[in-house]
Amino acid sequence: MTVKNFKIPSAVYFIVTALLIAYFFPREGKFRYQFFEGKPWKYGLLTAPSNFPIYKTDKEVALEKDSVLKDFKPYYKINRTIEAAQKEKLRKDYATTLKHIAGSSYMQYVEHSLSNLYARGIVSYESLNQLNKDNYAEINVVENNVSKTHFVSDLFTVKTAYEFIINNCPPRLDKKVLKACDINNYLVENVSYDSTMTARVKDELLQNVSLASGMVQAGERIVDRGEIIDGYTYNVLRSLKIVYENKTGGNQRMGMILGGQFVLVMGIMLCMWLYLWSFRVKIFHNQRSVIFLLLTIIVPCLLTEFCVTYGLFNVYILPYAIAPIVVRTFFDSRTALFMHLVTILLCSLMVPFPHEFLLLQTVAGMVVTFSLKELSERSQLIRSSFFIFIAYVIIYLSLAVYQEADFQKINWMMLLYFGINFILLTFAYLLVYMLEKTFGYVSSITLVELSNINNPLLKSLSETCPGTFQHSLHVSILAADAASRVGANSQLVRTGALYHDIGKMSNPAFFTENQSSVNPHEKLSLDESAQIIISHVTEGVKIAEKAMLPKAIINFIRTHHGNGKAKYFYNSLKNLNPDQEIDESLFTYPGPNPFTKETAILMMADAVEATSRSLKEYTEENIKEVVNRIVEGQIADGLLRNTPLTYRDVETIKNVFCEKLKTMYHTRISYPDLKK
């Protein structure tokens, strides 16, 4: 990661990681004990450090609150002015219009009914419906700051009040005449819900509910090692935990806790930084690799923090060993184990029973190291997961028997957690593939699988270009041995060598090793022949990309000739036309030049192996002369300028080539015929 060519120091990533982990640490003061009802107390004698209340459980408090609210009645307020206003409106309307419709007896009946209805109360339909839904039989009606109980059954809505007047009129009155008077115009809600008073009274009642059921005195014995935690003891311990965590609150104290967490996390991360700086310099200076390793630390830590803080599930379900499995797949066993130790040290600061956690997870990391010592097949990942499961079970059972000396006190649910952990660990098989695509890594497993000569692409190469395939095998032998001598990745070189010439499958007959008797170059000009030979690089890249080969393998195809020239055709044309200016681009490979030890070794091995086939006699002097001439020529042409090889590395590589070529081309003794 660069910003305007400024390379961010790796230490910055470690500091950011420490800040992120410390930020998500549990904020409350951590209670040092873990306990479960019905399980034995695993610690020593515990006495009360000070006086503290025994808090009721949430369920008990909720039941008491429900009991208090059972007799609670909501508050409503009544407006007496509405009755007077509506009666006055009725009288005015009667004096002007209603007297022509109904007599005075109707007027007297309606006015008397309004008095009765407003006295009992008219509420909105929604309020009455809610009261019935909440099963309230009574309400408190407030008038002039005085509250009186009122039955809900006595309340009316505008609709029921209208129906009451019509249905209860005396026989001497005509209902049709009453309906013609539009009595509903004088019916208005005069009782309304008082939310403020209701909430205030309800809060006062709830505040009177005690949250504690007793007190524990300072120095009082609570529980001792081996005692079964019953319901009362569990509640006392829970109350002690609440008091302890509340006391650790406060901004100043919380700031100190956060500062201590950051310093502690930063100290552990510093150990990881020093390890990479001291022993894995190549990883230390590769920012992509640093980010990858830090992610393998951050993700388990964050999952542990969320799991512990929110109580999602048991922490032993989390597959902590999947991180060292992945790191071992892409890097080495020592880095995987060291990274795993850093991760579980950080996680142990958050989990209950940290010593038990450290013991189990450390053994799991060691099992990963031993079981994946020689990683060459994906099935080894599944086998390693099974070994980790067995290790978890054996260590846990041994520890439980050691601590309790009683099989009945073993928490057998832990075996289920380990089983779920094993299932999650098996997904390392898929995770390795996903990470290869995401970070561009190539695992040793993938390289071994690609090196299988029964691979469809290699099988097609052997059938289409048998000479090229044989050449690739010889190059892989030379390059792999040379790589192991100079500290390069021999498996990567071996695999790259097998694929470096797959582009020749597009025009196999144009390459000498695949020809029988006919040479198609005889019908072409030298520059046309050169273009066909050079095209095997670009064609190889196309074939590799279509086959979805890793980028690291495609780099071998691009660079195995670098920006060198097709010298046979270039020199031939130059010799035929010494005075003619030649377009060198027609004879130059597209490149780029090698930029790693592995690609440089392949370039040298490819040229040396191909040239050695032209020797008439395979003597030590001839082989050494060819190797020196080819390698020195590549150095002189500047093809190895961008590689990290030293002069000593180059000399070592040349010596390996000489040794291997002498072995590969040694003469065999002739077997004598049996004389009759």
From TrEMBL:
<dbReference type="Pfam" id="PF01966">
    <property type="entry name" value="HD"/>
</dbReference>
<feature type="transmembrane region" description="Helical">
    <location>
        <begin position="337"/>
        <end position="360"/>
    </location>
</feature>
<feature type="transmembrane region" description="Helical">
    <location>
        <begin position="414"/>
        <end position="435"/>
    </location>
</feature>
<keyword id="KW-0472">Membrane</keyword>
<feature type="transmembrane region" description="Helical">
    <location>
        <begin position="6"/>
        <end position="25"/>
    </location>
</feature>
<dbReference type="InterPro" id="IPR011621">
    <property type="entry name" value="Metal-dep_PHydrolase_7TM_intra"/>
</dbReference>
<dbReference type="InterPro" id="IPR003607">
    <property type="entry name" value="HD/PDEase_dom"/>
</dbReference>
<feature type="transmembrane region" description="Helical">
    <location>
        <begin position="381"/>
        <end position="402"/>
    </location>
</feature>
<dbReference type="InterPro" id="IPR011624">
    <property type="entry name" value="Metal-dep_PHydrolase_7TM_extra"/>
</dbReference>
<dbReference type="Pfam" id="PF07697">
    <property type="entry name" value="7TMR-HDED"/>
</dbReference>
<dbReference type="InterPro" id="IPR006675">
    <property type="entry name" value="HDIG_dom"/>
</dbReference>
<dbReference type="Pfam" id="PF07698">
    <property type="entry name" value="7TM-7TMR_HD"/>
</dbReference>
<feature type="transmembrane region" description="Helical">
    <location>
        <begin position="289"/>
        <end position="308"/>
    </location>
</feature>
<dbReference type="InterPro" id="IPR006674">
    <property type="entry name" value="HD_domain"/>
</dbReference>
<keyword id="KW-1133">Transmembrane helix</keyword>
<feature type="domain" description="HD/PDEase">
    <location>
        <begin position="464"/>
        <end position="620"/>
    </location>
</feature>
<protein>
    <recommendedName>
        <fullName>HD/PDEase domain-containing protein</fullName>
    </recommendedName>
</protein>
<keyword id="KW-0812">Transmembrane</keyword>
<dbReference type="InterPro" id="IPR052722">
    <property type="entry name" value="PgpH_phosphodiesterase"/>
</dbReference>
<feature type="transmembrane region" description="Helical">
    <location>
        <begin position="256"/>
        <end position="277"/>
    </location>
</feature>
